[in-house]
Amino acid sequence: MSQLHRRGGNPSLGSMCAKLGYPQDFADRPVSAGQPLTESVEWITNHRPKGQNHWPGLALAFIAQAEELLAAEGVDSLPDVFMSNPPETGRAGARTINTMNITRSDGGESSKLRPHYNNAMELIKYTLLRNFPSSPGHATQSWPAYRPLVGMIFAMSPGERRALAEYVWTEWVLPLPEFQIAQVRDRVVRPFELVLAKMPTVGPKIPGGAMLQALTYGYLLADSPNLILESHSVNTGSARAKMLGDVDGFRGNEPELAAEVKDMELNESNVEDQLGGFLEDLAAAPNATAVVVCKNITDDGRAIIEKRNITVLTVSDLIRTVSVWDLPKQQEALRGVDYYLGRIQKSKAALNHFRSFLEGNNLDGGMTTPADESKASVEDTNLNPG
Length: 386
Description:
There is one protein chain. The protein is an alpha/beta fold. It contains 15 helices and 7 strands. A 5-stranded mixed β-sheet has the order 3-4-5-6-7, sandwiched between helices. A hairpin with a 2-residue loop joins β4 and β5 (254-266). It is elongated. The two termini are 67 Å apart. The mean pLDDT is 91.
């Protein structure tokens, strides 16, 4: 089974031999350092063509091509490869071959440089995420300038070729600048997600149920921008407001969404009592999507509600959903909460509670508060919902 490697980083050459097309035992060879290896390192250091940034990939490809041809020839090295296995130069009437295709002594298919270079380039660019040229044709056409290096590679012992590959890999490939797709860091919690998870929904002078109804309004505003939302204060009640639920969504004059909000735990024993009126009113709007939003719910309670084709969303469900929202959508939800508390519920205590939580947690709600409105100016309504 092949190993999986994360992109980038500084993996060993041995872990990448398969991608380079090297023999399976390549990285297990004993490293040896004879004259061909010494000469090749000196040539790379002092005599390689200048201004050709593709050369590390080309060197790795030369080694892969040498391994391929030597295996086909059944030998460990070729002291003068250009004499024993001359490169193809083209056929009569055919186009000139400008890459290095080395012939075989038995007349078999030649060993071609381009596929090996493609492997090296793709490994360096897309697996290691290094800054590396993307011109394979240009790179392989430049092979004549590296003719001395090619000759040295073919003349090396198997251990020397491994040593040269390790040298190119560690000294020239891995030090290339790495492209960072993303910097690993702690996940930043989005603002509406944090409000749902951490902000208390009860407090002094805050009407019971108002905060969760505001959060529901904000959630639906951001999640259903194609609908026109209507709601009422928790003191009014859906029946008195002539609405299906606590928050309704309309397309034109047609109700498309009805959400009932309960800041409590629902269970088998209280579902009918808490939701009876809502369930009855839904009969008048069979095409509306019905939702119950609650603090939490037991499995039995959820089963009773969902049996009626009504979606149940607990606060935990909302948190999981909004955790994948982008920042603008989260801020749209927060603006909805702010609007509900200030313009619908009209509770100064609730609005100040919400804004103070944002400020205290350095959350950007995407809202601009006038300089003279450091605290909400709305007046509190009856704190006991009817």
